[in-house]
Amino acid sequence: MAALLEVKNLGISFGGLRAVDDFEVSIKKGQLYGLIGPNGAGKTTVFNLLTGVYKPSEGIITLDGVNITGLKTIEINKAGIARTFQNIRLFKELSVIDNVKAGLHNHYKYATIEGILRLPNYFKMEKAMTEKAMELLKVFELEKEADYLAANLPYGKQRKLEIARALATEPKLLLLDEPAAGMNPNETMELMDTIRFVRDSFDMTILLIEHDMKLVSGICEELTVLNFGRILTQGATGTVLNDPQVITAYLGE
Ligand SMILES: Nc1ncnc2c1ncn2[C@@H]1O[C@H](COP(=O)(O)OP(=O)(O)OP(=O)(O)O)[C@@H](O)[C@H]1O
């Protein structure tokens, strides 16, 4: 089966620094894939390249057979990649449900003039979006908090809401940047269940960056290890985590 995400020879420099060099990965549909490596190895830069925040100096990114290299972030999102951030980036002053509805705007369209004049199509779309957003909130057990301000949710729930908003854009590939950052062990365990659940019930393909090795070994099927911007090794999780090179790279932090 062709890979959902196929990356070849991806690279970028910042001034003299080669932040990512000759990066490649092949991720199959439905896979739970991990990108790991010591601090500053280039993991977030890979996400920024995949999502069009940075334009690659070289390389090709193919999503579901479509070359998305060099497209803008919004175009890449429409092509099917959504992400969450290392430091949660919600619309904190909006309600929980409005955060999810913001994600839905990719697929529900009414003309601005219909919105201004409150024409029937506007109400129809708004109703459909509210229903869809509530469905997603139920999946993440956030429906009771639909009208809360996002800023007032506890940390673990903010993470869930960020994932719900990303899923609202109906991606083919979901990128999670350190989803367990700042979580206590119980929240991390719950997050692992949530990620597995998202993969299974949305038939989602997930690429995640994570430092928490319990999470990585618990849910990732394959891994790529980055070190100083280059691939140190990649393959099945068990094999990679027992690779002496990987252990040395982490101990050398
Ligand atoms: N916009 C930028 N301008 C200059 N240097 C950058 C930029 N973005 C990242 N870098 C550098 O690229 C390197 C890789 O950074 P990156 O944030 O991708 O690492 P990381 O593996 O995600 O690290 P961490 O685990 O600490 O989040 C670092 O040396 C960083 O300082």
TrEMBL record:
Coiled coil: none
Record's GO cellular component terms: plasma membrane
GO molecular function terms attached to this record: ATP binding; ATP hydrolysis activity; L-isoleucine transmembrane transporter activity; L-phenylalanine transmembrane transporter activity; L-valine transmembrane transporter activity
InterPro entries (alphabetical): AAA+_ATPase (IPR003593), ABC_AA/LPS_Transport (IPR051120), ABC_transporter-like_ATP-bd (IPR003439), P-loop_NTPase (IPR027417)
Domain ABC transporter: from-to ranges: 5-253
CDD domains, per the entry: ABC_Mj1267_LivG_branched
Superkingdom, natural source: Bacteria
Entries under Pfam families matching the protein: ABC_tran
Keyword Transport: yes
SUPFAM superfamilies with a match to the protein in the record: P-loop containing nucleoside triphosphate hydrolases
GO process terms (BP): D-alanine transmembrane transport; L-alanine transport; L-isoleucine import across plasma membrane; L-valine import across plasma membrane
Keyword annotations from UniProtKB, A to Z: ATP-binding, Nucleotide-binding, Transport
Key word GTP-binding present: no
The protein, known as: ABC transporter ATP-binding protein
Organism: Parablautia muri
Lineage, uppermost ranks: Bacteria, Bacillati, Bacillota, Clostridia, Lachnospirales
